[in-house]
């Protein structure tokens, strides 16, 4: 940029801020209005964007209108449209007008509540919001600030897992000595998210000390207390130290639910840290009919769930609650002199979130979750969750009524797992058949689904949870599945 233009640069001019922000909002309004016109999953080749964009940024700044036009021409066609009502893949990544408004306020105010003195109201709002959420999902009083526990808003479950593993590790090593880290063992099921294995490596647990415990169809692929007990007994007999047990409410692949109370009793028996991962299904726990899935939570040390998945809160936002904040902060705290600001240090109620996370910086995530709760209310959020569950229930019913299909695992929330049966038993390769079916569904551009493999079965996953999804979209998806099933079965 030339010196004259540089001298005139006003990056946060109030009038320009309003005009350019309105241009972005108008662009997004058109995007959401027309989102069904785009293929949910793009027909894009690796590296295609590099052929469309220059090798260097512009020397002189360009107008927002010019930039947004390039977004429309070059970026939008290469996106997977996660907010499309026909997006049924992975797990949902919700957005909403309230979530967007909260994100705008958070981004616009741009404060960093990493400690109370850095932004008192933002820090305290986070404490209020996590207590609200704890009560809504049915956590016992011990997870609330008022009950001696507390919560923090992380960016993802991955961060929450690393932090709780570090707290569990340090708690154990404070008695055993640091050299005992090679004896610590972490336990999870073959349905648990891979982030637990990654997190264990990050905090220094040897990969050979991570136990992946098999699950069976008989328990709907939930982890059983007996299988954990046997694995722990064998490790103790070998001189190892049980450290951490993950229990999941709504696994990634199948939506399986582990028995929290039974596993909690095993964890207590052996002095293990018990973590409850409810990243996706935690949102459903606000509905009374799902509360039993977290029975026994008082036996846990930590719980996490992601409002950005199924709670209308734009990325990224993960609630982590712990019973003992002191264990978390002792593993993660640092106190350089430049952070010893005057103000609030002596008050017992002050929370410094820099000591509850990996990074020092801490975004104002509480603002967007607060806006979602205020704007839609508990009744509105319960109706939202139930609507998706009812749609998934309908889709499952259609599958069960069609003899061509098999529901692999009974639906619990809004995830349906299914596969297509071969026309002639024993003659067709079922995995190849279902791979072809999934490719045909996604290749149509009319829907996007993903797969999972369990007991050597290739399973198609259909998750209802996008903010804009209505019953007609689920009905269209069912028609698409039927049509593509007929096509692939007719192909030699």
From TrEMBL:
Q: Which GO terms describe its molecular function?
A: carboxy-lyase activity; pyridoxal phosphate binding
Q: Which SUPFAM superfamilies match?
A: PLP-dependent transferases
Which keywords, in A-to-Z order, does the entry hold?
A: Decarboxylase, Lyase, Pyridoxal phosphate
Q: Which InterPro entries match?
A: Aromatic_deC (IPR010977), PyrdxlP-dep_de-COase (IPR002129), PyrdxlP-dep_Trfase (IPR015424), PyrdxlP-dep_Trfase_major (IPR015421), PyrdxlP-dep_Trfase_small (IPR015422)
Q: Which Pfam families match?
A: Pyridoxal_deC (PF00282)
GO process annotations (BP)? amino acid metabolic process; carboxylic acid metabolic process
Instruction: Write down the required cofactor(s).
Output: pyridoxal 5'-phosphate
The record, for Gene3D superfamilies, names: Aspartate Aminotransferase, domain 1, dopa decarboxylase, N-terminal domain, Type I PLP-dependent aspartate aminotransferase-like (Major domain)
A Gene Ontology cellular-component term:
cytoplasm
- Tell me which domain of life the UniProt entry assigns to the organism this sequence originates from: Eukaryota
Positions where N6-(pyridoxal phosphate)lysine occurs in the chain:
309
The UniProt family comment states: Belongs to the group II decarboxylase family.
* Stated name of the protein: Tyrosine decarboxylase
**Can you name the source organism?**
Triticum aestivum
Query: Species lineage, top-down?
Result: Eukaryota, Viridiplantae, Streptophyta, Embryophyta, Tracheophyta
